[in-house]
Structures are given as C-alpha cells and as structure tokens.
Design goal:
Blueprint (H helix, E strand, L loop, with lengths): L1 H31 L10 H20 L2 H28 L11 H17 L6 H20 L1
Helix pairs in contact: 1-2, 1-3, 2-3, 4-5
C-alpha cells in the first residue's frame, strides 16, 4: 500500500504543480497583455504558484513526509487565494468590466435588446432585469463622459 500511496501522491502532486504553473504563467502574462480584459490577478499569486514547483522539486529529492504536507498546504492555499480573488472580482467589481471602451456602444445595444425581451416576457422585477438596467446606466454614463 505504501508504494501505491507514493505513486498516486506523486502523480497528484506533479499534476497539480503543472496545473498551477500554467495558470501562474497566465496570471503573470495577463498583467502584461493589452488585449486581456478579465480579472487582474496579483503578481504575488503568480510567484506563489511558481514557488510551489520549487517545493515539489524538494519533495522529489528528499521524499520527506513533512515536505509532502507543506506542499499539500501550499497547493490548497493557492487554490483558496485564487478562488477568493475570483469571487471578489465577480461580486465586487463594476458592471461592464469585460467590455473594452470601444465596445461600449455595441454592449449598450445588446443590453437594451435583452431588456426589451425581458419586458415582453413580463420579467421586469427579475434580478437579471435589474442587473441589465444597472449595466445600461453604467454604459450610458461612461459613453456620456466620452462625448
């Protein structure tokens, strides 16, 4: 059973570290990319992800249980911090953040069309309708600032 545990643990750790490294690379590059308009992850999260691979290398060299537990805690911490940042972005950012300013007129048109459809379906009190109205107000105010 010990050999089986070791094999499964190593496959799991290596897979997790590859996953975290790839996402950390995207977090790092996303900050530098002009075309990326999604959530802005902190640089420390990318560096934290890269450092997890260093701990994996230490585990592969030493095969010590304490390093295995440290790696487990680091992986869990990275996942939780990333999840918290996504939740914060999802629920505490301004509406319309995914639209570039050049796309605001198109977004406004689409939101108004969606609002008309919801009104025809008699869903004027639906939370989705309220969110659409807030997005429309936001886009109109931003477009008003432009002119």
């Amino acid at each position: 059973w010990l050999a089986f545990h070791g094999f499964v643990a190593m496959v799991s750790f290596i897979g997790n570290c590859i996953y975290i490294d790839l996402y950390s690379y995207l977090f790092y590059k996303g900050l530098k990319s002009r075309i990326y308009t999604g959530p802005r992850f902190k640089k420390y999260l990318a560096y934290f992800g890269f450092s997890i691979s260093i701990v994996l290398m230490i585990l592969l060299i030493t095969m010590q249980p304490i390093v295995e537990w440290i790696l487990t805690i680091l992986i869990l911490s990275w996942i939780l911090i990333t999840s918290c940042q996504m939740i914060i972005f999802k629920f505490f950012n301004i509406p319309g953040i995914y639209y570039r300013r050049s796309k605001y007129p198109e977004a406004l048109k689409r939101f108004e069309e969606a609002l008309q459809i919801l009104d025809r379906l008699d869903m004027s009190e639906d939370p989705l309708t309220k969110t659409l109205k807030k997005n429309i107000e936001f886009l109109k105010s931003e477009l008003g600032k432009k002119t």
